[in-house]
Amino acid sequence: MIRIKNHRETRARYWHTLPAIFLFAGVGIFLYVIGVTYIISMMLFGLSVVLLVWAIIFKAMTA
Fold first, then answer.
1. What is the pLDDT of residue 20?
2. CA 53 remoteness from chain centre
3. Taking the CA atoms of the chain, what radius of gyration do you get in angstroms?
4. Can you list the pairs that 15-22 forms with residues at least 24 positions away whose Cβ atoms lie under 8 Å?
């Protein structure tokens, strides 16, 4: 009887931890997507700045 009761308790505890695991996974994926989009936007911003500076230098050299 003790073993069955113990098994039932562990199963209940497992079901209680499942939402937390899903929550952590969702938050992790959310942060990962935000980080990836942030890095891509930063790279595009840096590329545009480099192109702008290069165009200004090129104009200054040719003028």
1. 85
2. 31
3. 27
4. none
- Per-residue pLDDT at 44: 96
Q: Scanning the structure block, which residue is given the tokens 């891509």?
A: 40
Q: Could you tell me the CA-to-CA distances from 59 to 9, 19, 28, 52 in Å, in that order?
A: 75, 59, 46, 11
pLDDT of residue 42: 97
The Cα–Cα gap between 28 and 20 comes to 12
C-alpha 48/C-alpha 55 separation (Å) is 10
Cα 29–Cα 31–Cα 37 angle in degrees, nearest 5: 100
In tens, the pLDDT along 7-62 reads: 666 667 777 788 888 899 999 999 999 999 999 999 999 999 999 999 999 999 88
